[in-house]
């Protein structure tokens, strides 16, 4: 009798354990959300038992930030600040203003959130497009300049000293949104997920099977081709490129990333700039700024900040530059030019 009960106990234990084993190895289907926000396609991919409500909360967070930051919504906080020209701003706007001001300083002016009069002149973002003459550009540039933003972080008071000044967080807002969505997901105990906000990617943890996420970096000349594939966990990967938004006239391409010095689309020699670092807000701001800088200035900037980020640059002459920290993580069929600290002046 005693031996029989031991046998039954063992059999039950084996059945339970093999059940657990099967559950652990069953391929989990992700919960996804595809939607349009901040003028781009957004995709949320999540795993875990709380993935369904977590995806809803993350989507709601992006839509909340869109309402707050939009340069077109007449009720957005950004537009209201422009109208009033002085206001105490929300915590989100405060973070973005402070971050934009420090990025402007760090990047020698390449990152600039006051360019929207110039963007509009060219017809960005929605057209009709137009190639302006020098006088038009000069007039639009007079309405720009981050020196006209007075910012007091203690009181969160922002004053715009130029009455024509308009704020455009288009070069940083999606990265910030990804970061805030990731914070919402962390609260909901999500450990495996991927946010893709129009090329602004935030990888949460690993894939459910514990392998790294594989992120393809788009080839500027081939819609369905890629420059290579990055294998990453718990990080941000953000790309700015001349193929994202542009028009062509007389065989010349005019794209949406502007050089604040010239008031024209940046002709820096870069076709696409990808930044890899933990914080998605930083990655977004830097991808725009490095695109404006060009390869040499970008490499010198990276040398000074190499603990903070890594990059992949694809240039007009088809060179694929990859900083040394990414070399073990990046697989490409193209020839790679490594960017090493010791090679930069
Ligand atoms: P991204 O795709 O992140 O490089 O952002 C491009 C968007 O940022 C443009 O559509 C503009 O709204 C804005 N932008 C353009 N040029 C600049 C610049 N030099 N600095 C900051 N934002 C910019
Ligand atoms: Mg950007």
Structural overview:
This protein has 9 helices and 19 strands. With 345 residues, the protein is α+β, with helices and mostly antiparallel strands. The chain has a domain of 92 residues: T-fold (Orthogonal Bundle). The chain binds adenosine monophosphate (AMP) and magnesium ion. Magnesium ion (MG) binds next to helix 8.
Indicate the topology:
Elements lengths: L1 H24 L5 E7 L2 E8 L3 H19 L7 H8 L1 E3 L2 H16 L9 H7 L11 H8 L7 E4 L4 E4 L12 H15 L4 E6 L2 E5 L8 E7 L2 E11 L3 E6 L4 E4 L2 E4 L2 E2 L4 E2 L4 E8 L2 H14 L1 H10 L5 E6 L4 E4 L6 E2 L4 E4 L6
Parallel strand pairs: 17-19
Antiparallel strand pairs: 1-2, 2-6, 3-5, 4-5, 6-7, 7-10, 8-9, 9-18, 10-15, 11-12, 13-14, 15-16, 16-17
Helix pairs in contact: 2-7, 7-8
Bound molecules: adenosine monophosphate and magnesium ion (MG).
Summarize the structure.
This protein is 35% helix and 28% strand.
List keywords for this structure.
35% helix, alpha+beta, 9 helices, 345 residues, single chain, binds magnesium ion, 3-stranded antiparallel β-sheet
